[in-house]
Specification:
The protein is of the alpha/beta class. It has a domain at about 1-105 and about 160-220: Acetylglutamate kinase-like (Carbamate kinase), CATH 3.40.1160. The protein has helices spanning about 20-40, 50-65, 70-90, 130-140, 165-175, 205-215, 250, 260-275, 285-290, and strands at about 1-5, 45-50, 100-105, 105-110, 120-130, 145, 150-155, 160-165, 180, 185-190, 195-200, 220-225, 230-235, 240-245, 280-285, 295-300, 305-310. The strands form three sheets. Strands 1, 2, 3, 9, 12, 13, 14, 15, 16 and 17 form a ten-stranded mixed β-sheet that branches. It has a four-stranded mixed β-sheet with strand order 8-4-10-11. Strand 10 (about 185-190) and strand 11 form a beta hairpin. Helix 2 packs across helix 3 and helix 6 packs parallel to helix 8 (about 260-275). The longest helix has 21 residues, at about 20-40.
């Protein structure tokens, strides 16, 4: 079975952790153990987030004032190369030596007229307290948004239209290569009037890009991993209930946070509707259980309504 697994930020950096290389490698080592189990039985494609890493590079970039700051698309390319390298190494140290892994820097086409450019919503970078966030908003002109008790920078998040390197990715997957691609939602690009590609100052949502990748690769399962065990109805309230399984129509009737679980729900429902296959959302450490149907939240056309956990 061809499986696309989208690693959330917790696979690279747990909330509140220091943005150092050692923490990221240790977290990826844990993720690699789970991914290796999937690789034993299935054709594996890996996508991942890069929000904290892009934010860190942006801060480093801003500290060097001799040149203009690098644009987000370039920072995105730098981070997915770094993350891909670590995943390749840690996963390669577990799976058989003869099995090949490769990272593809993936350009994803967006519409420069997308309304998202007038309404930044995508969190990138580390978390800040209220005072730090206000200072950065005034000093850099950043848009800031609440993230639980903290704040993060938010940037435009246009809809992914097309994966430029899709044919190359498909060729590699068809030949049994474990492919790491669409990292950070892909590098946002657009065509100018002469039909030449250029980078766009934005961040594409990882889950929506991964859903597009899954559909276009004819994946038979699309899994999104995060830091919670299930999708929850009324999350964060006394009425909170874990959802074990749901039909996409029923799931979309519930309200989810736009910058967090919301895109995962949209991506999962799009994939299920367009392919007739199944999607799942759950915790990184539960990946093998998610694959067997014993953990996480399953989204499928075969489910009637919503099935809640006990």
């Amino acid at each position: 079975m061809r499986v696309v697994v989208a690693l959330g930020g917790n696979a690279l950096l747990q909330r509140g952790q220091s943005l150092n290389a050692e923490n990221q490698r240790e977290n990826i080592r844990v993720a690699a153990m789970q991914l290796a189990e999937v690789h034993k039985h299935h054709q594996l494609v890996i996508a991942h987030g890069n929000g904290p890493q892009v934010g860190l590079l942006a801060l480093m970039d801003a500290a060097y004032t001799a040149v203009d700051p690098y644009p987000l698309d370039v920072l995105g390319a730098e981070t997915v190369g770094m993350i891909g390298y670590i995943i390749e190494q840690e996963l390669g140290n577990i799976i058989p030596f003869k099995d090949h892994i490769v990272t593809v820097l993936t350009q994803v086409l967006v519409d420069p007229e997308d309304p998202a450019f007038h309404n930044p919503t995508k969190p990138v970078g580390p978390i800040y307290d209220r005072l730090e966030a206000e200072k950065l908003r005034k000093a850099k002109g950043w848009s800031m948004a609440a993230d639980g008790k903290h704040f993060r920078r938010v940037v435009p998040s246009p809809q992914p239209q097309r994966i430029i390197e899709l044919n190359v990715i498909r060729m590699l997957v068809d030949n049994g290569v474990v492919v790491i691609c669409a990292g950070g939602g892909g590098i946002p690009t657009a065509y100018d009037q002469e039909q030449k590609l250029y980078g766009v100052e934005a961040v594409i949502d990882k889950d929506l890009a991964s859903a597009l990748l899954s559909r276009e690769l004819d994946a038979e399962m699309f899994v999104m991993l995060t830091d919670v065990a299930n999708v929850y109805a009324d999350f964060g309230t006394p009425q909170q209930r874990a959802i074990k399984a749901a039909h996409p129509d029923a799931l979309e009737q519930l309200d989810f946070v736009a910058g967090s679980m919301g895109p995962k729900i949209v991506g999962a429902c799009q994939f299920v509707r367009e392919t007739g296959m199944q999607s799942a959302i759950g915790k990184l450490s539960d990946l093998t259980g998610i694959m067997s149907g014993e953990a996480g939240t399953l989204i499928s056309n075969d489910i009637r309504g919503i099935v809640y956990g006990e």
